[in-house]
Write a structure and sequence with these properties.
It is built from 4 helices and no strands. The protein has one domain. Helix 2 crosses helix 3. The longest helix has 37 residues. The protein is mainly α and 81 residues long. Keywords: Membrane, Transmembrane, Transmembrane helix.
């Protein structure tokens, strides 16, 4: 680990903005970064859709507790025969 104190702390902190400048200069790197950012947005959308679907399923199942309990009782009665 490089310490952030001392005489070289300010030049070390100024190195951080070099990365976006490098990305904007090289066209192939810009395409890669643009693709990765769009992929992150797509994955976030898919995860949001799955979360909404899971929430819907949880609400539907919690509203059907009585029906599920009766169905389990019928199944266990049929198994006992």
């Amino acid at each position: 680990m490089i310490p952030t104190t001392g005489p070289f702390a300010v030049p070390r902190a100024l190195r951080v903005p070099r990365v976006p400048r490098l990305i904007s200069v090289v066209p192939s790197t810009r395409k890669v970064v643009t693709g990765l950012l769009s992929l992150i947005i797509f994955v976030a959308g898919v995860m949001t859709g799955e979360a909404v679907l899971n929430l819907f399923i949880a609400v539907v199942v919690s509203g059907m507790e009585d029906e599920l309990r009766a169905l389990r009782a019928e199944v266990s009665a049929l198994r006992q025969r």
